[in-house]
Amino acid sequence: MITVTSVEAQNRFGQLLDTVQREPVIITRHGRTAAFMVSPQDMQDLQAARDNKRQSAVAAFETWSQQAAASALPAAAELTDEDVVRMVKESR
What we know:
The protein is α+β, with helices and mostly antiparallel strands and 92 residues long. It is built from 4 helices and 3 strands, in the order βααββαα.
């Protein structure tokens, strides 16, 4: 992975477009990372990984929600949002 300043990136943009086909490029501004340039394939891979992580989190939450609903007492179904807020405040 190569690192260039934002000024270098502006001056060498066409060359960097070729470079990102082989490796990502870090663009810095004032010594700090400001952006990454990646190939379309790398971006698709990153988006797929993010989507897989999101789907996994949703599935885990749905499983937890079903388990919580199955183990909840019948009286819990009768609680309103206001009841829950009041009980949380009282427990603090």
